[in-house]
Structure formats: structure tokens, C-alpha cells
Amino acid sequence: MFENLQERLGAILNGLTGRGALSEADVSAALREVRRALIEADVALDVVRSFTDRVREKAVGATVLKSVKPGQMVVKIVHDELIEMLGSEGETISLNAPAPVVIMMVGLQGSGKTTTTAKIAKRLTERQGKKVLMASLDTRRPAAQEQLKQLGEQTGVSTLPIIADQSPTEIARRSVQAAKLGGYDVVILDTAGRTHIDEPLMVEMAGIHQVSAPHEVLLVADSLTGQDAVNLARNFDERVGITGIVLTRMDGDGRGGAALSMRAVTGKPIKLIGVGEKMDALDEFHPRRVADRILG
Ligand code: GDP
């Protein structure tokens, strides 16, 4: 699919043989296509703008090597810039803190928070030999705590016993206490989501953060989130302070533009991607692959 943009740019630029450097007009024509590709990939408009500005700066006046066509050269500049903006390879969840290390999962309802909580717990247990406790702090959706308990049974990971009528902050406090007493290495707090960001949600998240002092705050977001990705990431980062992002549903048809949008506004790394509903469907984030996908 990557050839797609290359072909489009080739059609615009490859007639320019014999010229030594890319002119402002050549680059502008090419960037119109780049902009279109990014918008098709659902990258947020502000981010598309800042990205194309960065590429313009690098491309105008760049000398076109004899061995490559101008279209290929612009694609390379775009591709390299995209990889740089998407961030480094091999980011992982940090457990570099005194036990029990608290990981707080945040995000909108339906983003895949509970599923991802269990996937991460399973991975830390199986691959790193950690003793993990999971707790659902979602007191709003009646079945939420039960859902996590079932995933715990399925994956063989402990869950905090459910006590009715406790508030999210009470459950957070109890989770950390239980993890300390039980000798757990890691405790993962699965917080409540809403269909959209609102003030009470942010107040609740800040309260949980305060009582549990998480070492990692992971924003779980659906990779199909379009223009809302920027607001979502900015709000959670400003109000709660995230340390990383997990993008779910990367197994779908989406081109993953949300990855670029969220990374650009928060500067926080994408640590993992969800690639299916199964408990093992969690992968490392590879910027190069996502860059190819975004360019289409
Ligand atoms: P929550 O409301 O944020 O806790 O969302 P859930 O964890 O309950 O997930 C909502 C739905 O998305 C469930 O049916 C999950 O199986 C599904 N889901 C979660 N992550 C992924 C993923 O990476 N890929 C796919 N295809 N489905 C996912």
C-alpha cells in the first residue's frame, strides 16, 4: 500500500528530471497528496498541519540524488519524519519502582480497557514471572467488576475480591493494601470509562491517582478514533498525567492515524497495541509498520 502514495507523488514529481533541488512549488504539490493520505488515515487535522510543515522544511531545497526519482525522495522524507514522530521502537511497561508497582488503566468506555488489563496481567505473569493483582474500579457499570473477575479466572491472574458499594478511591486504596499484604509485584487498576470525557470522570481519575500513586498510567484508546484522538489524549494527559498509550483494535481495517495524533499531542510513547480479542493478542508497537500503514 505504501507504493500508493509513492505512485501518486511520482505522477506529480517525476517529470522534474534534470533539476537539482526540490522547489517550493514541487514540495507544495507533493504535500497536498501527503495531506490527503494522512487525512484518509484519520490523522487529526492539527497534527496533519504540523507534520506537513515539518516535512516542507526538510524537503524544500533538498538535492535530488541522481539515483532516485523526486517522488521517491519525498516519500522517503515523509516516511522518515513519520517514524520519528511516532517514536522509538521497543517501549515497554516500566516496573522500575518499589513493589507493588501500580499500573492505572484509563480511557473511554469500550476502548478495550478491561481486556487490555487482563492481557497485560497475563503477559507480566507469563513472560516476566510477576505476581500480579488486578482490580476493577468501575462501580458504574454493574457487570464490569464481574467481567474482570472472569478474565482473571480465564488467565489465571488474581483479582481483588469484590466488595459491594465501595467507591473507586476506596477500591484503589484497598487494592494497593491487598497487593502489599499479599506480596504482589504489580497491581493493575482498571478504571471506569464513559462514552465521552466529562468533568466527573476526570475528578474520579485524579482521586484514584492520588490514593494509588501509579508508576504507569496507560491510556487505552481505540485505534479507530478519528479526529477525537487529540482531545482524548490531551484531556487525559493534562488532567491525570499519562505515561504511555495502548492502541487497541489494530487488527481492524483502520490505518492507525490516531497513533500519530496521540503521540504528537502528548509526546508520550505508544507502549503496546491490541490486535484481537484473545488474551494473547497484544503486541509491541513498531513505528515503521505503522508509518507504512498510515501512508497507505
Ligand atoms: P472497556 O469498556 O474499555 O473495558 O472495553 P472492553 O475491554 O470491555 O472491550 C470492549 C470490546 O472490545 C470487547 O468485545 C473486547 O473483546 C474488544 N477488544 C478489546 N481490545 C481489542 C482489540 O485489540 N482488537 C479487537 N478486535 N477487539 C478488541
TrEMBL record:
* Ranges of residues in domain SRP54-type proteins GTP-binding: 269-282
Q: Which UniProt keywords apply?
A: Cytoplasm, GTP-binding, Hydrolase, Nucleotide-binding, Ribonucleoprotein, RNA-binding, Signal recognition particle
Keyword GTP-binding tagged? yes
What GO CC annotations are associated with the protein? plasma membrane; signal recognition particle
Annotated Gene Ontology MF terms? 7S RNA binding; GTP binding; GTPase activity
Source organism's superkingdom? Answer: Bacteria
GO biological process terms, semicolon-separated? SRP-dependent cotranslational protein targeting to membrane
Q: What is its EC number?
A: 3.6.5.4
Coiled-coil segments = none
Record has Nucleotide-binding as a keyword = yes
Which positions does UniProt annotate for GTP binding?
107-114, 190-194, 248-251
Catalysed reactions, as listed in the record: GTP + H2O = GDP + phosphate + H(+)
Which locations, inside or outside the cell, does it occupy? Cell inner membrane; Cytoplasm
Q: How does it sit in the membrane?
A: Peripheral membrane protein
Self-association or partners: how does it assemble? Part of the signal recognition particle protein translocation system, which is composed of SRP and FtsY. SRP is a ribonucleoprotein composed of Ffh and a 4.5S RNA molecule.
The text the record gives for the protein's domains is: Composed of three domains: the N-terminal N domain, which is responsible for interactions with the ribosome, the central G domain, which binds GTP, and the C-terminal M domain, which binds the RNA and the signal sequence of the RNC.
Family named by the database record: Belongs to the GTP-binding SRP family. SRP54 subfamily.
Free-text function comment from the UniProt entry = Involved in targeting and insertion of nascent membrane proteins into the cytoplasmic membrane. Binds to the hydrophobic signal sequence of the ribosome-nascent chain (RNC) as it emerges from the ribosomes. The SRP-RNC complex is then targeted to the cytoplasmic membrane where it interacts with the SRP receptor FtsY. Interaction with FtsY leads to the transfer of the RNC complex to the Sec translocase for insertion into the membrane, the hydrolysis of GTP by both Ffh and FtsY, and the dissociation of the SRP-FtsY complex into the individual components.
Name of the protein in its database record: Signal recognition particle protein
Span covered, complete protein: 1 to 296 of 518
